[in-house]
């Protein structure tokens, strides 16, 4: 399926631009006359940033980050925390999470067709360590940032806050929701390779108690490589209630996000014969990948006493990926030889492999926490405690015809000098246009329950200590539907952290910390367990990661530079 759309659905104007002009006034007639005779016209000032009234501006100024869950200033956290302002990347048409994380210290990204290919400090983050508003976004699919306000990265083991983790850290995407301050905006963009799109962000305070917001985006783009492109649609309404005394804040939001791609999965460059243009795409007419996400979240914050707040959130997320395409390829010369000299019988063509997969991931999560402050003698405490419960389901259905016992049944042959000259192997004739049969099908159901406690103890303004611990109990059951095999597993884990912070002056914060994370089932997680592996051949116990970190956080030039 190709996406070569020439029309532009105009929905908006450019976002992120604030036009400012100023004029002075005076009641004095003399001053007015002087102004008339000494008037200078100043150029229009264009500011590509967020308005001062935007409630998330403090995050962009790197003061706090919700990924820490405790509401503390980042300088009081004995770990590295980075915040990325998504609006800056939107000016250049970026949307993929992996693209926006490029260049972030300690984070590496590599293009992957079916997921984001993100690692934090050398540990893969795709499966368990990416969150949206504190809710785990597990599963295999590419994540969109169409409705994301900012991206936060907490580096190092984070099990004390989020439970299971590979150990490199966690990424949290914070969505746009209704509030009483953010301005509305509409915009459109046009770029190279038929890149067109529009965005709408309508935020309205109906009165002192209610606010609504509607965020939408639609885009369509092609590529420098022929036949490659994608289109994307996102719509997210939200509603926020605020009590008269401003002690209750309740937000409910829903997001639908769909990304439909013709993937660029042609042969590697060293497989191509001489003279083939780098602009040549090898996608077939029906090659496509669909990533679809539906999420619902309701979030309640209640200040029930001075310096004490209760937080509760319930969320449900469902992501679906439909993957169906040819990929790779091996060139056979006119002499019937491969590049390595072996014989072949598809002379003058590139032979491509085929696979399809449909994967559904569902997450239901209920969480609550209480944050408060109190004193014990001369010590100040900022404490957080709470509980998380989650249920995760994963169902992958795969048709793998590139490896294993079914390899070689279905191929596509393409002339690299004229990709419209292509043909299918004989096995396709018996399918009558349908997909080949599935080769694997499994269902996994995972549950976890946790309790956590964290306390920032301040001895004085300069010396602070962070103490935290979390207990996780989890279980899963995997059912191999095709082969009628089952496997279940149950375990628990304790994750501590401790850190010390020294702030000799307000702009400088030195810290040292120890933290520990766990990854269940020998590091395999809860949702990707095979029922065919003999459990006696490997260790099924949790895999632990311990980190000792020393660092410094500094503000320079009156806060205009952060290191």
Automatic annotation (TrEMBL):
The gene is bfrD_2. GO terms for cellular component: cell outer membrane. It comes from Acinetobacter bereziniae. This is Putative TonB-dependent receptor BfrD. It comes from the Bacteria. Residues 244-562 form the TonB-dependent receptor-like beta-barrel domain. Residues 1-26 form the signal peptide. Its main location: membrane. The keyword DNA damage does not apply.
């Amino acid at each position: 399926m190709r996406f070569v759309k020439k029309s532009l659905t105009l929905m908006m104007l450019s976002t992120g631009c604030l036009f400012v002009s100023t004029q002075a006034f005076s009641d004095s007639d003399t001053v007015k006359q002087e102004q008339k005779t000494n008037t200078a016209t100043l150029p229009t000032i264009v500011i590509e940033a967020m308005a001062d009234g935007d409630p998330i501006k403090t995050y962009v100024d790197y003061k706090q980050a919700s990924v820490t869950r405790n509401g503390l200033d980042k300088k009081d956290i004995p770990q590295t925390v980075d915040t990325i302002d998504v609006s800056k990347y939107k000016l250049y048409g970026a949307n993929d999470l992996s693209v926006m994380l490029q260049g972030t210290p300690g984070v590496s990204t590599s293009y992957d067709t079916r997921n984001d290919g993100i690692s934090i400090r050398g540990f893969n983050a795709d499966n368990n360590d990416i969150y949206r508003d504190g809710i785990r976004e597990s599963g295999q699919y590419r994540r969109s940032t169409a409705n994301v306000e900012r991206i936060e990265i907490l580096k190092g083991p984070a099990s004390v806050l989020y439970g299971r983790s590979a150990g490199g850290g966690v990424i949290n995407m914070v969505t746009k929701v209704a509030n009483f301050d953010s301005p509305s905006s509409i915009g459109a963009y046009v770029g190279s390779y038929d890149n067109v799109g529009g965005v709408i962000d309508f935020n309205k305070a109906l009165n002192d108690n209610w606010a609504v917001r509607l965020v939408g985006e639609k885009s369509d783009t092609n590529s420098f490589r022929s036949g490659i492109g994608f289109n994307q649609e996102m719509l997210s309404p939200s509603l926020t209630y605020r009590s008269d005394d401003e002690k209750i804040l309740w937000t409910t939001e829903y997001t639908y996000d769909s990304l439909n791609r013709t993937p660029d999965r042609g042969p590697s460059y060293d497989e191509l014969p001489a003279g083939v243009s780098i602009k040549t795409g090898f996608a077939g007419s029906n090659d496509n990948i669909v990533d679809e996400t539906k999420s619902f979240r309701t979030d309640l914050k209640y200040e029930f006493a001075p310096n004490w707040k209760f937080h509760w959130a319930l969320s449900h997320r469902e992501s679906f990926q439909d993957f169906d395409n040819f990929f790779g390829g091996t060139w056979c010369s006119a002499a019937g030889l491969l590049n390595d000299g072996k014989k072949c019988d598809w002379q003058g063509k590139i032979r491509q492999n085929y696979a399809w997969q449909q994967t559904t991931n569902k997450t239901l999560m209920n969480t609550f926490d209480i944050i408060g402050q109190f004193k014990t003698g001369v010590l100040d405490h900022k404490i957080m405690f709470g509980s998380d419960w989650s249920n995760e389901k994963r169902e992958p259905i795969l048709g793998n015809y590139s490896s294993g016992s079914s390899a070689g049944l279905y191929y596509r042959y393409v002339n690299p000098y004229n990709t419209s000259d292509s043909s299918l192997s004989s096995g396709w004739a018996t399918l009558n246009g349908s997909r080949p049969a599935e080769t694997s099908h499994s269902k996994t159901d995972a549950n976890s329950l946790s309790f956590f406690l964290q306390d920032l103890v301040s001895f004085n303004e300069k010396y602070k200590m962070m103490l935290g611990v979390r207990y996780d109990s989890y279980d899963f059951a995997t059912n191999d539907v095709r082969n009628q095999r089952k496997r279940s597993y149950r375990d628990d884990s304790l994750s501590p952290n401790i850190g010390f912070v020294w702030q000799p002056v307000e702009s400088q914060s030195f810290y040292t910390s120890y933290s520990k994370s766990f990854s269940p089932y020998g590091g395999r997680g809860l949702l990707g367990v095979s029922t065919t592996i003999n459990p006696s051949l490997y260790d099924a116990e949790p895999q632990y990661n311990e980190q000792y970190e020393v660092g410094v956080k500094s503000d320079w030039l009156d806060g205009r530079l952060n290191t």
